[in-house]
Every structure is written in structure tokens, then in C-alpha cells.
Amino acid sequence: MTALLILAAGSSSRLGQPKQKLFYKGKSLLQRAVDEGLASDCSDVLIVLGANEESVRIEIDQKDVRIVVNKDWEKGMSSSIKCGINALIKNKPEISQAIIMLCDQPFVDAEILNRLITEKQLSGKAIAACSYNNTLGTPVLFDGIFFPELLSLEGQQGAKKLVFNNQDQVVSVPFPFGNIDIDTMEDYEKLREI
Hints:
The chain is of the alpha/beta class and 194 residues long.
């Protein structure tokens, strides 16, 4: 069984407002991420909230998802990954793998999430990562054997370190629009022009 872990705990300091609530094509970025996750083959969708939790929670309160709150969100992305993986291990021990996804990649859809699951299965590898701009990145699917290593991440480290330290275990899935994410108002304006 595959879980989807949507990281949405950051404060969006460079943007100046919660990026989770920015609208694109009639939905907030977080609503889009959740809806695509629910439309995918993932059996469990878990959202990690943190900064601005109350106002962001409103975006998804009516959705069929689980929400966990990362009280240590200021410690960086690793704290959100750990919060989510711990919640999976505790509440859904039958989960055998998890996709880590960011809420600010507006072109992630159910199809790319399903391709990660399919390609990992077909390849026999333990990690399926999206490839774009000559790198590997999110969304990325980790087999459960990597949960302990995900729990050992520190600070601003995301899961990319694990991907690059285990390249012999990685199958890449082309995702040309994976490089589009929203960190600044300039990024958002460019997105709205697409």
C-alpha cells in the first residue's frame, strides 16, 4: 500500500503569505495537491501542516485526508518528513511505501503520482524519483525500507540526499514541469501567465 505525504508546513517567508493558499485555476495550491492525491492510486493521503496551521487547515478540512501538525516546522523540511513518516508508522503500519510531495508544485497530478508507483514496481528499485532540469526531485516514492533513514534527516535537508546516496536503487520518471514551484511572488506571477 502506498501513502502520499504532502508537505505543507512551511511559513513561505520569501513569499510573504502562505503559499498553500495561493489560487491557481480556481483552487488553492494545497487544494490542488490534495485533490490530485485523492484521485491517484495512493491508499492514504496525509498532510503535514505547521506554520499558519489554522488558516491553512480551512483549505482541506472537508477532504478525506489525515492531517498531522508539525510543531517543529521551524526546524526545516526534515522535521515535516519525520512528522509524516512517524504518523504513518504509528497509525498505518500496513503502508509499505510513501510518496513525498510538496504542496507548491502546481503541475503534479494523479498521473505522475501513479507513474511513480508503476515505474518503481516495474523496475524493482526501492526509489522512484521525478527527473527534471538534469536533476532528481519531488515527488519521490520511497520503499518502506528507507523510512528509518528518512527519520534520521536533520535541519533543512529534504529527501534529496537519500536519493543521491542511493542512485543504484533509483528509477527516474520524467516530469518536465517538476521544476515549477512557488517560492516568491515572481514565481507566482509567472505561473499565472502559463
